[in-house]
Specification:
Number of strands: 2
Order of helices and strands: EEHHHHH
Number of helices: 5
Low-confidence stretches: 92-108
Shape: flat
Largest sheet: 2 strands, antiparallel
Mean pLDDT: 79
Distance between the termini: 56 Å
Length: about 120
């Protein structure tokens, strides 16, 4: 019999995601806390906005915090290299898909070596 340790992120009594490591679970929990703060901020500043729209936008802002920070610092969109770095820091389920696509899309470089 195998024993597995799983870390479950629970918000408001609802299971959100299960992780194999505490570090990943904590990062996802922090992202959800940030999304909730963004949602509350949007509700205060845009009272006409539908609650589900505010939640969706709050989650998007939290998931894309690195790109948002870049835009706030530079007033420019992040370039492709910055987007790749942000993808590496994205939530676990997104990272696996993007890494798999990125590895498949990038051919391995071959370097010629002169024989002595």
């Amino acid at each position: 019999m195998a024993v597995e340790i799983k870390y479950v992120v629970v918000k408001k009594g609802e299971e959100k995601m299960t992780f194999a490591s505490k570090k990943e679970a904590d990062a996802y929990d922090k992202m959800l806390d940030m999304a909730e703060a963004f949602t509350d901020w949007l509700a205060q500043h845009q009272p006409d906005m539908d609650e589900s729209q505010a939640e969706t936008l709050g989650l998007l802002l939290a998931e894309q915090k690195d790109a948002i920070q870049h835009i706030l610092r530079t007033s420019k969109l992040p370039d492709a290299a910055d987007a790749a770095d942000a993808a590496k820091k994205a939530p676990v389920e997104d990272v696996a898909e993007e890494n798999a696509e990125g590895e498949a899309a990038q051919p391995k470089k071959v370097r010629a070596v002169k024989a002595a």
